[in-house]
Amino acid sequence: MWHWALIAASLQTQAIPMEDLDLKAMVQEWGQPQKSRSVDGRPLSIGGVRFERGVGTHASSTLTVLADGKAVAFRAKVGVDDEVGTRGSVEFVVLKDGRAAWRSGVLRGGQPAKECQVSLQGAKTVELRVTDAGDGIDYDHADWAAASFEVLAGAKLRVVARPEEAPMKIASHRRDRTELHGPRIVGTTPGRPFLFRIPATGKSPLRFSANGLPEGLTLDPATGIVRGRVPKPGTYDVKVEVSGPAGKDRRTIRIVAGKGKLALTPPLGWNSWNVWGLSVSADKVRDAARAFVETGLAGHGYQYVNIDDGWEAGRAPDGEVLCNEKFPDMKALADEVHALGLKLGIYSSPGPKTCGGYEGSYRHELQDARTYAKWGIDYLKYDWCSYGQIAKDGSLVELQKPYKVMREALDSVDRDIVYSLCQYGMGDVWKWGNLVGGDLWRTTGDITDTWGSMSGIGFAQGKIAKYAGPSGWNDPDMLVVGMVGWGPSVRPNRLTKNEQITHISLWAMLAAPFLIGCDLTKLDEFTKDLLMNHEILEIQQDPLGKPPVQRDLGDGTEVWTRRLWDGTIAVALFNRNFAAKEVAVSWSSIGVQGSPRVLDCWRRKDLGRVPNGLRQRVPGHGALVFKVGTPKPAW
Ligand code: GAL
């Protein structure tokens, strides 16, 4: 007998069927939640058994219910709806105050329904979640069949769409003071073209100077753009100064000339996919590049302007890959991007076709690498897609093979091209992405702008963070902030502001690439403040690239720490609960001594010397980030 049943028996309770709740606030990644129907509108059916009542949804989905301590239990029969046959795989999770209280384990199409019974005693909030079980959301039609809450007699349940808390105020990115930003270490292959725009902001006009530039490089003092070729391998410490009407700033930027040094810090840039999907065009890419300069993103170190799927046509008779009508002249586009001191990225697949059904590089790898070099491409995202039909099996040899082939092709051209592997984490790519010559590798399926998707990906990355570091980064997918759309029309982001703060804090602590996925011509102030916070970018771009230590405090809150190159420690406090919570961390628990100096990064506020530790209120689904200690720059 379940203990909730005993309790229920001793109390006056009543049942509230799940389908009677207000489902408008249920967030899901495909389709709409259906009352007593599958997501496609058919009668609910799991493992050949029909159910009269329940809710049909689609992964990833979340329904958040305010129970206020008045719920006793939840029960349901869950599974993948029979309308997808044996396809689809999901996991159902019931969370009590932000902690998983019940998990179904992975359920696949065709399997019988699993019985869910959970005590909800004392719960303030209950979340009913369906995840994609880590393999993408395709065919994930999920049913909460015969689902009902048992509540105290007369109690009502309220469904809420989002945390009701006010967004945390973060510092404005706007300041007159002259300031240098961006990577403190950049790499190049000896003898190949080098391009780097020194990131700086402040009241214009700015003037740049550099002392100690290696032979072969020249600086344009008006734009801060450094160009040339470094002939010899070596490490060059360049003293950079920027001055303007609002003062001066100085820092040493280390230039490393050697093999495989293109991503000494995680890439900062933009990618067209989360905003434009397959409707990307040269005009949209050009607009993005211009926006890098106009908004200050370039001034903060963002440099890669990356075209995702949707630029390709077929091949010419000689086999050369062709651009479609949306990209009339790729070389001219690259020239324009380079003139701004920025870099251009492109996308392809080792398979015959890309995920969007466009031309892939299969059997044309060398020719494509040469074409990219001829156009002036600086970054390649190489997406598995249809290579699944070519690979003999799922063995490591087969998973690695196509990535090695393209690595060799890229090595043979006279151009530095950052190599981004995309195969959704198959075969634990973080363990071997570096061995096949990747500069970064996707660790997950596609992200979307829901708390379930973003936080599910982000918080799970802590345990594989140790595999990432300079020249080989885990890539938990592109940022979902600002106006997104995955197609021709854009819409506001579905993450709340606090959730977006969590997103950027997580990715920064993870040293994950910041590849913005929104319409840069429609950046609002909040999104700019998120993306151009100097302190947060310093953590993300930290030259040591150390993995964070993740500590789960067991109440839906987490403390993450990371050692930085200047001897300080980044400390992030996360609250995965729906409601605000106080999070405390003692200095002794994270190896800090005395009363260190503390900087509140999101608010850009110096807290002075702080004894003992931190105790802070963290908004629901929100985060705070601090820099602890007195910086002693390593160079
Ligand atoms: C997916 C990939 C996405 C995007 C898309 C393009 O496989 O994960 O990030 O590149 O293909 O078709």
Overall geometric form: globular
Low-confidence stretches: none
Estimate the helix proportion, in percent: 10-25%
Distance between the termini: 65 Å
Numbering strands along the chain, what is their spatial order in the largest sheet? 32-31-30-29-28-25-24-33
Mean pLDDT across residues: 95
Number of helical runs?
10
The counted number of beta strands is 41
Bound molecules: beta-D-galactopyranose
Give the class from helix and strand content and strand pairing.
Answer: alpha+beta
Q: For the CA atoms, what is the radius of gyration? A: 26 Å
The main sheet comes to:
8 strands, parallel
Strand content: 25-35%
Can you walk me through this structure?
- The protein has 635 residues and is an alpha+beta fold.
- Helix content is 16%, strand content 34%.
- The strands form ten sheets. Strands 32-31-30-29-28-25-24-33 form an eight-stranded parallel β-sheet. Strands 1, 3, 6, 8, 11 and 13 form a six-stranded antiparallel β-sheet that branches. Strands 2, 7, 9, 10, 12 and 14 form a six-stranded antiparallel β-sheet that branches.
- Helix 3 (282-295) runs parallel beside helix 4.
- The protein is globular, with a radius of gyration of 26 Å.
- The model has no long low-confidence stretch (mean pLDDT 95).
- The site of beta-D-galactopyranose has 10 residues, from loops.
